[in-house]
Specification:
It contains 17 helices and 14 strands. It is of the alpha+beta class. Helix 15 runs antiparallel to helix 17 and helix 16 packs across helix 17.
Length: about 425
């Protein structure tokens, strides 16, 4: 992710939701010492995030770590955090045991772990209604604020103010309209903003707060919801629509993969938060022959000291459209010259290898990576091309079918892919 610093406009680095969710999961395990069995990775077609099974649930996404209270606080950030689970099918969920996918018939996660996860996520995504939640809803539903007012005692006298003014003042304050800091927030507002009499066409939120003290409202209880509806009835708004939107605010029903699967639970990864990086790598290597997740971890990390070249080469040929498209009008000789002119440093450490589009996007790469990028572009044009060592092991040669050769210098001490690795 630091590689983005080499692109214009990204001085702090950057990442997509997939890389950020993986980083969150790793940091929670390595730094926060959260056991793997508490960490679940989720993905929809357009977004990746994690659910952490601690303290009622924590959800991570691109912008922040979201507790349940934050999930329902009505801010724009929290509403954006909800967007994927509100609107998209969750396609895959994975943990240290395995995964379940909405498309595939087989699931390698245990059903008990998936059932536990599902129940906890559903509880996280639902809340009963109290005054705090109603105020949070109003913070989100700005159009409804014009129907409500707050009261406040100043110098021993009652004062009244429009709800939208109070919520507006939140933007420049650490205090909030719905919690124990409300009095402090109201004290921050200029006295000239208040009225000496109630605003006759608005609901007084203090009276609603009193209602909740005596009448807890469960969204699963039609009786308590109906009582709230009668109490909130007012000519300023359509109470049926208001309650429906409030209930929708209080409950998200994620579309999770169904349980009609063939459950083939595999042996989970037994990793401890106390293990070192070297211990974890050694453990994963030791179980590669019996655990496909451990085996594929080395391929996913492009660790070409331990992984086979064929999957890497297949991805290079079939999944790197940027370098192919952006070099479309360049002769092969010009492509090679452009690659040679790039900084000769890899974005990865010695044993890992970047894919061709990473070379092209970040404008740098080891000679081996540049050579693979050139082969990808050549093969997209149906040119035959192979890679060999030329002279000493540090010289990588890309030889075209017409006999032309392009030499790149590498510092990665790796075995090279052979011709069969590119047969995809």
């Amino acid at each position: 992710m630091n590689a983005f610093r080499h692109k214009e406009g990204y001085p702090c680095g950057a990442g997509e939701c997939v890389s950020l969710s993986a980083l969150y999961a790793s940091a929670l395990f390595v730094i926060a010492k959260i056991p793997l069995e508490k960490i679940f990775l989720m993905a929809t077609p357009l977004h990746s995030q994690n659910f952490i099974d601690i303290k009622g649930g924590i959800l991570t996404n691109n912008r922040r770590i979201v507790t349940k209270n934050m999930w329902f606080n009505g801010t724009e950030l929290s509403f954006k955090a909800q967007r994927a689970l509100r609107n998209e099918q969750v396609t895959i969920i994975a943990n240290h045991e395995g995964y379940i996918h909405s498309v595939y018939d087989t699931a390698s996660i245990s059903k008990s772990a998936y059932d536990s996860f599902s129940g906890k996520l559903l509880r996280y995504c639902k809340t009963d209604i109290n005054f705090d939640i109603l105020a949070n809803f109003l913070r989100h539903a700005a159009d409804a604020q014009k129907c409500f007012q707050f009261s406040h005692r100043c110098c021993g006298k009652p004062r009244f103010i429009e709800a939208e003014k109070v919520f507006h003042y939140e933007h420049s304050s650490k205090s909030r309209a719905n919690d124990a800091t409300r009095t402090a927030l109201l004290h921050e507002i200029d006295e000239d903003e208040f009225y000496t009499e109630p605003l006759g066409d608005r609901v007084l939120l203090d009276e609603i707060e009193s209602f909740f003290r005596e009448n807890p409202v469960s969204i699963d209880s039609p009786y308590t919801v109906e009582k709230l509806k009668k109490h909130l009835h007012h000519g300023c708004y359509n109470v049926e629509k208001f309650i429906d939107e409030l209930l929708d605010f209080c409950k998200i029903e994620p579309r999770l993969p169904g349980t009609a699967k063939r459950w083939t639970a595999s042996s989970p990864l037994h990793l401890s938060v106390e293990q070192s990086r070297q211990d974890i790598i050694a453990y994963l290597e030791s179980i590669r022959s019996v655990n496909v997740t451990a085996d594929l971890a080395f391929t996913a990390s492009r660790d070409m000291r331990r992984a086979a070249w064929k999957p890497f080469c297949k991805a290079a040929i079939q999944r790197n459209p940027v370098c192919i498209e952006q070099s479309r009008d360049m002769p092969v000789e010009q492509v090679a010259a452009k690659l040679k002119a790039m900084a000769s440093e890899s974005i990865y450490d010695s044993g890992r290898v970047a894919q061709p589009d990473e070379i092209w996007n970040f404008g740098r790469g080891d000679g081996l990576e540049k050579a693979l990028c050139l082969i990808t572009i050549a093969r997209a044009r149906n040119y035959g091309a192979c890679i060999t060592v030329k002279g000493d092991p540090g010289n990588i040669c890309v030889r075209m079918e017409n006999g032309s050769e392009f030499i790149f210098r590498t510092s990665k001490e790796l075995d090279l892919p052979d011709e069969s690795d590119f047969e995809v």
